[in-house]
């Protein structure tokens, strides 16, 4: 593979922040294995691979669309002006081609899963792409992002069973509140800038102190739904250990990000939330395979 191709792959990986897949992928895996359990333990490698591809293509589409529609805003913001499109590393027409390719690949992949997933694929795309426009008119944009990522566990469950169930829905609700909460924390980075541009967010609407309180309340709801899912599924001790670690990381980010000190936002956003999702997934799987 030539150096030019490798560089182009690296550029597009940077465009869509591949590493941030850790926010949705662990819960997609949890949703998948819940479905396997409800499907008499029948594990299908093909379905598992297709599910992973759906997560990959959907997230690529969402992130590339976000970077395209926000390119003029990003260019004005000192924090984001070095992103791939504003800096000229990736041309806009290439980003559009990448977006269209991932939309097509996502819809095509759902077709090979089952008809329900294929039928719902435009709805999923509308939510995950539409999020990028919402901060222009509502401070509820964080919740739209949360809804978008919350599709991961229920979508993975549908990929296996082609029908809805309360248990993955509880995990979806947990993801919605979790993501909404930490996205509010991340938005603190741009509170002053967003005000000058007429953009909306919880910190802009309510201020830093109240925004952190709202984020904390949302994360309490996150734990409520994870605990509820664990109780409904009669999970074992390993799951509850993972939940306790998840809760520790969840509350620790609120300890290190204060109204008078937001210098560690990136640690809270990327490191703590990334690890917490992965840890919950690992302990869920250990509990699933070694206890149940």
Helix content: over 70%
Order of helices and strands: HHHHHHHHHHHHH
Uncertain segments are none
Largest sheet: none
Mean pLDDT: 92
Strand content: under 5%
Shape: globular
What kind of assembly state do the chains in view correspond to? Answer: single chain
Question: What class would the helix/strand composition place it in?
Answer: mainly alpha
- Kindly state the number of beta strands: 0
Q: How much is the radius of gyration in Å?
A: 19 Å
Keywords for this entry:
77% helix, mainly alpha, 292 residues, single chain, globular
What does this entry look like structurally?
There is one protein chain. The protein has helices at residues 3-16, 25-38, 45-69, 71-76, 92-111, 115-134, 141-161, 166-187, 191-197, 202-206, 208-232, 237-256, 265-290. The protein is mainly α and 292 residues long. It starts with a helix and ends with a helix. The relative contact order is 0.12. The mean pLDDT is 92.
């Amino acid at each position: 593979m030539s150096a030019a191709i490798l560089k182009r792959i690296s550029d597009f990986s940077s465009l869509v922040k591949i590493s941030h897949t850790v926010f949705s992928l662990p819960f997609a895996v949890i949703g998948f294995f819940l479905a396997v359990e409800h499907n008499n333990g029948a594990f299908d490698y093909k379905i598992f691979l297709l599910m992973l591809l759906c997560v990959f293509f959907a997230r690529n589409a969402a992130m590339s669309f976000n970077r395209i529609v926000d390119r003029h805003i990003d260019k004005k913001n000192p924090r984001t002006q070095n992103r791939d499109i504003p800096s000229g590393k990736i041309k806009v027409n290439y980003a559009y081609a990448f977006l269209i390719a991932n939309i097509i690949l996502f819809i095509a992949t759902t077709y090979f899963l089952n008809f329900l997933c294929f039928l719902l694929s435009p709805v999923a795309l509308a939510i995950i792409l539409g999020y990028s426009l919402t901060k222009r008119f509502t401070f509820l944009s964080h919740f739209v992002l949360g809804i978008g990522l919350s599709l991961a566990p229920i979508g993975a469950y549908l990929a296996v069973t082609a029908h809805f169930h309360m248990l993955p829905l509880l995990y979806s609700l947990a993801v919605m509140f979790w993501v909404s909460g930490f996205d509010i924390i991340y938005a603190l980075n741009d509170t002053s800038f967003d005000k000058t541009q007429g953009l909306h967010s919880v910190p802009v609407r309510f201020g830093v102190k109240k925004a952190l309180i709202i984020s904390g309340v949302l994360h309490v709801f996150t734990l409520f739904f994870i605990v509820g899912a664990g109780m409904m599924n009669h999970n074992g001790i390993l799951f509850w250990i993972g939940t306790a670690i998840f809760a520790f990381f969840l509350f620790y980010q609120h300890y290190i990000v204060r109204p008078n000190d937001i210098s560690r936002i990136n640690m809270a956003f990327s490191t703590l939330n990334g690890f917490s999702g992965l840890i919950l997934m690992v302990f869920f799987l250990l509990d699933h395979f070694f206890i149940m």
